[in-house]
Amino acid sequence: MNACFLPCTSHYETLNLVLSCHFVILLLRSDSSKQGQAAAAAGPKAKPEPTKSQPATIAKVQEKTPSKPASSPPQYRNAEVENEINKNKNAERLELSSMKLNDQDMEIVAYYAIRNNTIHTNLVLGTWDADNPIGDEGAQYLAEALKSNKTLTSLWLRKSHIGDKGAQYLADALKNNTTLTKLDLWGNKIGDKGAQYLADVLKNNKTLTHLQLYSNRIREDGAQYLADALKNNKTLTELELAGNEIGDEGAQYFAVALENHQTLTKLNVFGNQIGDEGAQYLADALKKNTKIGDKGAQYLVDALKNNTTLTGLRLPSTKIGDEGAKYLANALKDNKTLRTLGLMYCDIGDKGAQYLADALQTNKRLRQLDLRSNNISSSLREQLEKKDRRFLLS
C-alpha cells in the first residue's frame, strides 16, 4: 500500500499525518513559500462544502465508418510496421513505441495486433522515452478494435498527442471491452472534458484497475468528475494524476470521495499546485484509515529526501515491517526538517530498528523516533535507548 506525503508550514508547525492503507498521495507543493505565508497570515479557514457535480452528459461519439470491414486488411500499408507485428505475433507483449507511428499506422496496428490477434496481452505504443505521434484519429482506430478484443489487458499510449476527443473514443470502447485492466495515457493532451468521458466510464466499468493520466491538462473540474466516479467504482486500484493542475479545490473533491473508499491503493497527485488548504483536506480524509505496507513506505523516500517543510510524521498501526523501515531510514539520512517520526505498531523487528538506528547517526535533527509496540527484542531496545535518547521504545 502506498503512503501519503503532505507539506507542513509554520501555520501547521507540528502537523502529524496519519497515512491510509487505501491510497497514496504524493504531494509536493510547487509554490509552498508564497501559499504558506498567505495561509499563516490569514489564519484557519473554514472547510467549505464541495459543490456537487451534475451528472455527466456525454455526447455519443461520432464515429466514422471504417475504411474496410474487420475481415479485410487496411488499404494503407507500412511494411516495417506489418513485419514487426508479424515477427512478434506469438508474443504476449508487443512493443512498437520507438517506430514513430502516426494515426494511419494505427489502422494497421488495430487490424493486425488487436482485431486479429488472440495472443497479445500487452500493447506498448508509447513509453516515457520512446513515443509515437498518435492523435485522436489514431485513438479512434484503436478504440474500435478494442470493442471486440478479448485478450488485451494493457495498453500504453504514453507521450502521444491524444486529446479530449481521443479520450472519448477510448472511453466509449471501455463500455464494451471487458478485458483491459490498464490504460496508460501519460503525457497526452487530455483536459477536463476528456477526464469527464473517462470518469463516466469508471462509474460502471468492472475491469479497469490502473488508469494513468500523469502530465495531462486536467484541472479542478476534471478532478471533480474523476472523484465522483470513485464513489461508485469498486475496481480501480491505481489512479495517477501527477503533473496536472487540480489545485486545492480538486484535492477537496478527492478528499470527500476517499473518506469511505476501500478499493483505491494508489492516488498520485504530485505536482498539482496543491497548497496547505488542499493538503489539510487530504490529511483529514486519510485519518479514517491506518494501514499501509512496506511498498507505501518506499513511496515516502523521495518525498522526504526533498521536502523542506514537514516536521512531524506518524504512521501508527501500519505494516511497513523491516523493509519499510529500511526505506524510511534511507530517507532520514538526507532529510533536514523532520523532527518527530512515529512508527508504533508497525511490525518492525530488530533488523528494521537497526536500519533506523544507523540513519540517526547521520541525522542529528530528528528529536524523537517512536518505536513502541513493535517486535524489537528487549536486548536491542536496551542497547538503543542507552546509545541514543531520541529513541522511544517502551
TrEMBL record:
Coiled coil: none annotated. Keywords: Leucine-rich repeat, Repeat. The lineage of its organism: Eukaryota, Metazoa, Spiralia, Gnathifera, Rotifera. InterPro entries: Leu-rich_rpt (IPR001611), LRR_dom_sf (IPR032675), NLR (IPR051261). PANTHER family: NACHT, LRR AND CARD DOMAINS-CONTAINING (PTHR24106). Signal peptide: none annotated. This is Uncharacterized protein. It holds the Pfam family LRR_1. It comes from the Eukaryota. Residues 38-86 are annotated as: Disordered.
